Write a sequence for this structure.
């Protein structure tokens, strides 16, 4: 895994953040006994929480600095957001399914994650009011990287996103240099649920 992740090892801060966040608090009660297995876990609405290894790899690839402001697309029940909250100064997270977003807000509040804000909306459009972001992480796969997410990435920023058609997805790191030029590199094949939206209204009331 370490070679695929493009680094020799996972950053100590990422491991600490993951050790600190109680994963069982971010899965439905019925599957809490499986929370620490290295596998995806269903959270309802045909969605899953990624396996811990994938959360670690994606978080690691972002190369966080303590003052980073991060955009997350696909809140789910809030586990990835809680990990990000340990590493960034501020996390803005967008979830298209209202009920998941409300449950995530409750769970994050219970864990004292005061630097996370969750909104119901179409992830393809990002969260323009709080842009630009130092880091962007997407936890569902569009066919192509949505242009608004690239636009909302700060010069010098970095995005980690699964991209591709179902059955042919790659985890991609996109970097924007100080001149605004974007380069992408593929890290490894992955399997994520499809990023919903784009043909829906840009915002849904929460």
């Amino acid at each position: 895994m370490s070679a695929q992740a493009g680094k020799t090892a996972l950053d100590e801060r990422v491991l600490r953040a993951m050790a600190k966040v109680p994963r069982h608090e971010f899965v439905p009660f019925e599957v809490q006994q499986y929370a620490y297995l290295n596998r995806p876990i269903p959270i309802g609405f045909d969605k899953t929480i990624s396996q811990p290894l994938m959360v670690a790899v994606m978080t690691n690839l972002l190369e966080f600095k303590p003052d980073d402001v991060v955009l997350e697309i696909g809140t789910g029940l809030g586990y990835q957001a809680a990990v990000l909250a340990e590493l960034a100064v501020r996390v803005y997270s967008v979830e298209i399914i209202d009920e998941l977003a409300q449950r995530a807000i409750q769970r994050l509040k219970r864990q004292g994650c005061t630097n996370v804000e969750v909104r119901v909306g179409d992830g393809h459009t990002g969260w323009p009011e709080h842009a630009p972001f130092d880091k962007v992480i997407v936890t569902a796969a569009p066919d192509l990287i949505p242009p608004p997410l690239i636009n909302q990435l700060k010069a010098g920023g970095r995005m980690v996103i699964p991209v591709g058609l179902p059955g042919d997805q790659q985890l991609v790191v996109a970097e924007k240099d100080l001149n605004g030029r974007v380069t992408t590199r593929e890290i490894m094949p992955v399997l994520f649920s499809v990023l919903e939206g784009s043909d829906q209204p840009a915002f849904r009331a929460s």
The longest strand covers residues 153-165. The two ends are 39 Å apart (CA to CA). The chain has five helices and nine strands.
